[in-house]
Structures are given as structure tokens and as C-alpha cells.
Amino acid sequence: MNAHEVNFDGLVGPTHNYGGLSYGNVASQSNSQAASNPKEAALQGLGKMKALMEMGFKQGVFAPQERQDVAALRSLGFSGTDAEVIAQAARESMPLLAACSSASSMWTANSCTVSPSADTADGRVHFTAANLNCKFHRSIEHPTTSRVLRAMFADERRFAHHAALPAVGQFGDEGAANHTRFCKGYGDAGVEFFVFGRSAFDARYPAPQRYPARQTLEACQAVARLHGLSAEGVVYAQQNPAVIDQGVFHNDVISVGNGEVLFYHEDAFLETDKVLAELDAKLGKRGGRFQAVRVPRSAVGVEDAVRSYLFNSQLLSRPDGSMLLVVPEECRSNANVWNYLSGLTAGSGPIREVKVFDLKQSMQNGGGPACLRLRVALKEDELTAVNPGVILTPELHATLTAWVEKHYRDRLSEADLADPQLLVECRTALDELTQILKLGAVYPFQLN
């Protein structure tokens, strides 16, 4: 049966702002307190979606969260009407208001982990929402994320949904940003690659010293169990703690995989040779031919990789078997990175083309092309079962563009988060969006 990889890109929400909330994410922290442009951010994201759709890639849309999250503020002791809650939070704890106003759900690579039906014991596509418990502003996302996923993938015969893992440090889970999958074809049984930063219970594994390791080995193992994955189809690898301490907060900032190819930095992993050998052996038993494309530190240093987000790129398969690398404009602006990419595509390797996108609004907040999309491998009957309202078409793109133009501000500063009208604008926009995408009631204000 034919199968496809569908990229579901996060639609940037109306409260997109630079709160500098993500300790360990260099771009997020360095742009803290700068004024953002939510309208431009959403249109840049939609522009990437449209361009890839027109190139023949299947593209979907993932709805943003309701923000400000007044319920979260109430749980922290703020009271009164919604407007009074926001005013009190702005007066007494602006950092909390900023956290509850974050549009970070735009990075849907963190929304969940997905295992295609070819890999799972029950033959269904499995989704586990990420608890994201390392950062408060992201830890409040998973209840709405789960409702949105169920509205998108509702057919219980084909799709299985799991709640987020326990919201404690031992099971810190950042979703698909630390997970990729290798396979001969998207419908074939593959090898799922889980990358962790530390172990919660086994002291033999080292840990970073400066920045937190957000993904644990135990979380990876739990997701694999929930999804019914076999030991023959799973590889676990530890991310190099030294690169986490240099700002590589997720594995998708230092490597990206697709099909039979892993594109990775020389310093990405501990025990690299052992990891590559295991991937090669296990993929070989499933009919694939593993290919590792190593980027040497002599060509691109870790600092260059972090600043350019070279590895936070999309690696996409063309019908002829060659691969396209989708990178942010920052890669072209970095001389070392651009020199490397120019040589890469001129060679005989699997990556034959590089396409550059302007995603500055997302990049300044710490997320590139790979952060913005959730990859879901679907067989034809599964794709047919997806809520058609979230599959991008030229008509839907035009509708969403008009929706953004109508509802989004073109400037947002920290002080603007105290404006109670912003919540009204967000809810009005999202109520209309759920009708456009045919999601039903998924937001707290719609349910309550």
C-alpha cells in the first residue's frame, strides 16, 4: 500500500512574543523582550507550507493554543474576571503572564511522538502527547494538544492516542524533537530513533552541567512501550552533554533524519560509532540501506550549527529518491554553513538540493523549519481518515491568510500582554479557526 509523509506545520498563534522563556535556547534568550510581529510570523509559516505543498509534498496545519492561558493563572492564585486575572498577573508577576501568553505551541515537533502503523504491535498510528515539563510555559500545552490531535486523527480503528507521561523530571518528554524514524519506504516497517539527554535512574550516563537535559532515557522507553514497538525496531542514543551545554537543547538542533539518511554533526552523540552501527544493522534487517552524512566540526562548529539552525531543517524525499534540505535564511547568512551546503549538494550524496526560507520571526524565538512541523507517515487509508479540514489546499491557504490578516496584530511587546483585549482577540480568532479547520470544540473557552 502506498504511504506518504505528511508534515503538519504549527500555525503561529496571535500572541507570538519574545518572552525569552526557554533557558538553554540561545536564540530565545538573546531576543528576550524584543517586540514581535505575530502577523508576519504566521504569514511566514503559511508561506513555507504553501511552497512545499506546491512542490508536491503533502502538508497539513496544526492549530495553536488558546493564550493567554487564564486557567493556568487562576491555578496559581490569581482571581476575578478574566480581565482582572490578567491585570493582577501583569501587576504582580509579569514573567508568569508572559509564560501563560507564549505561542510556543507553533513548534509542533514538540507536540507529541508519532509511531506509524507499520511499526506498532496493533497496526495503528500511535500518538503520545509530550509533557514538556522542563519549562512551565510549555508544560501547560499537552491537554489542548491532545484534544487537537484527537480532532485531527479521530478514527479509533486507525489511530491510538496516549496521554502525556507523568509530569515529573524523571519522565521529561519533548516529543518528536528528539525522535526520528528510518525506513526504506514510509509504509515499510522502520527503525525508530530515540535520543535522550540524560537518564533519570542510571548514574552511569553523564549529564550536561550548564543547561538542563530535557529528554530522559526513561521517557523514551515509556513511549516505545506505549506504542507497542519491538526491540528490533528501536535504537536509543544519548546526545552529547557537551553540545547541550552549548545550546543544543533538542536533538533536532544537531541532527535530522529521513528515509534511510541521517544528517548529523560530528559531535551530536555519545558513542557515535556504536549508534551508527546499530542503526545500520537494524535498518538492514528491515530491508533498508542506512546512510550517515556526517558534518565535521572542522567545517561547521557547534556554535555555527546553533546560530544557523543548520540541523533544524526539513529533510524531504523527492519522488526520484533524492532529498531536499529546507533551511532557514540564517544558513545562507553564515559563511561556514553556506560553504558547507554548497559543497554538499555538489557532491554525490543523497542530499541534492537546498531550499531557503525566511522564518525570522520563529527563528528569533528559537525555532526553525524542523521545529515548526510534525511528521506523520500515513498509508493511503489512514490519510483518507484524517480530518480533511486540516489538510492544506490552495483554498485553505487563502482562507488562513485572510484569517491572519483579519485577526493578528503586527506588533506585540511585553507590555501588550497586559491588554485584556488581546485575550478577546485570540478567542475570537480561534473560535473562527476551529470552524475553518473543522476541529469542533477543542479550546477551554469553548468547552467551559
TrEMBL record:
Pathway(s) of this molecule: Amino-acid degradation; L-arginine degradation via AST pathway; L-glutamate and succinate from L-arginine: step 2/5
Q: Does the keyword Hydrolase apply?
A: yes
Catalytic residues (positions): E174, H250, C371
Q: What is its EC number?
A: 3.5.3.23
Q: Which reaction does it catalyse?
A: N(2)-succinyl-L-arginine + 2 H2O + 2 H(+) = N(2)-succinyl-L-ornithine + 2 NH4(+) + CO2
Any one Gene Ontology MF annotation carried by this entry is: N-succinylarginine dihydrolase activity
Keywords recorded for this protein, A-Z: Arginine metabolism, Hydrolase
**Keyword Isomerase attributed:** no
Q: What class of enzyme is it?
A: hydrolase
Share an example GO biological-process annotation for this protein.
L-arginine catabolic process to succinate
Tell me which residues bind substrate.
19-28, 110, 137-138, 214, 252, 365
Give the protein family.
Belongs to the succinylarginine dihydrolase family.
State the protein's purpose.
Catalyzes the hydrolysis of N(2)-succinylarginine into N(2)-succinylornithine, ammonia and CO(2).
Subunit structure, briefly? Answer: Homodimer.
- Can you name this protein? N-succinylarginine dihydrolase
